[in-house]
Write a structure and sequence with these properties.
Layout (H helix, E strand, L loop, with lengths): L13 H53 L7
Length: 73
């Protein structure tokens, strides 16, 4: 069997393994940040929709109050 085929160190020693490990970790971190950014953008859009809906409900309540549609005790 050739060196490295059984999980031994790569040619070049630990320095090469370290750079590969760092690059792999950087790629994983980039992917995770990208996923989190997409989730945050979706949440921001959903929040904006909810705020718009609340404003519409508030306007509707104000209109009903002006029309005298509220309860009288």
């Amino acid at each position: 069997m050739a060196e490295g085929s059984t999980g031994g160190t790569r040619a070049g020693g630990e320095a090469q393994g370290d750079s590969f490990t760092k690059r792999e970790k950087a790629n994983e971190d980039f992917f995770i940040r990208k996923q989190e950014k997409e989730k945050l953008l979706q949440l921001k859009a959903k929040l904006a929709d909810q705020q718009k809906h609340l404003e519409e409900l508030s306007k509707h309540i104000d209109e009903l109050a002006k029309e005298g549609g509220g309860e009288k005790n």
